[in-house]
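2.7 Reproducibility. Because tokenized structures are sensitive to small changes in the input, we list the exact sequence used for Aldehyde oxidoreductase, including any N-terminal residues retained from the expression construct. No trimming or masking was applied before prediction.
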Amino acid sequence: MQTVTIAGSEVPAIGLGTWNMGDEPSLQTQEINAIHAGLAAGAKVIDTAEMYGSGRAETLVGKAIKDVPRDQLYLISKVLPTNASKNRMERSLDASLKRLGVDEVDLYLYHWRGQIPLSETVAELQRLTTIGKTKAWGISNFDVTDLEELWQLPDGPKAAANEDLFNLGSRGVEYSLLGWQADHHLPFIAYSPVGAPGQLDTHLGSDPDVLKVAKRHQATAYQILLAWVVSHQQVLAIPQSSNPDLAKENVLAGDIQLTADDRRVLDKAYPAPTEKLPLDVL
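Resulting structure tokens (single pass, no recycling of outputs):
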């Protein structure tokens, strides 16, 4: 299984996303079982955020990991822009930690840029890491210009990862962002790695070329989409599934090695960008 190293921690390249989980009480047992299935298949990363269901996703994760040894987990959460200030961030983090039932998160991300000065947000992210409530901090929905601005701050280069939308149908980050991050040793976390709702009016999982490659590997289309994402250097994918069987399949996609011919087929169907594109966000 491919791995990614974030702030010195090596983790499997496919983790578990939790967006839209925890919202429906009748699905709680199934969603917890899906998290357990993903972990049993070899996942270690669970990605969540205070925004997801106004804390309900974190609460669900807390229930799911209650009996899981802490060293078998790599927990990521995120702070909302409105809470990313010196006066509010620690309170937000404490609430996240309480919902998760842990003393610290492994990675705490600034969810997207808001009105609070970046210098203030970064200083507080670093302070919370220094006092031990997070092991590392990072950013999300940042493009190259945002990262260049971040790198000018005293603690900016201490960022441990950047999380953005990336999948076969949304390849804009390949033009310059992935290269910038590789040059600056900043790992990339891909959200919506098998496609985003309504994206380009396409359905990547039913695309004939994706299915053609999947048949070669006796895999599902979604496994191929994930294998493609994590074939990029230092890229972690965080697919979300509330189905235990699909959660397991997602994680096992990390074992699939695409061939050069596979990549040619996928590149022809969904070409790489030839110019800088606006950052896709959800």
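Residues 36 and 65 are 8 Å apart (CA to CA).
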